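PROTEIN DATA CARD
Card holder: TauD/TfdA-like domain-containing protein
Chain length: 101
Origin: Linum tenue
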Amino acid sequence: MGPIPGVKLDEARNRKTWFNMMVDAYMCWDDALNDRKKAVTFGDGGYLPEEAVRGCERIFQEESVAIPWKKGDVLLLDNRAVLHARNPFDPPRRILASLCK
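Structure generated from the sequence above:
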């Protein structure tokens, strides 16, 4: 697979959006099959500087909003417009998700 752009054009909004898993790949994909520092590269194959990835992670943390979930809550979001993730949790946890186009 060749280079994949980390930023895509959201045609519905006519704006560029961050659309990748660079921070997750770099920070978390470290196992027998993956070397996290090689998981994401520049288009020319060069490695990302760790301080750049950590800077992105810091921005994600600073801009994040925790949703105070209550039983029965529903969240609808546009995957092209909002970064989303989860924090560590204590089981049990039940998530029902539906994806639509």
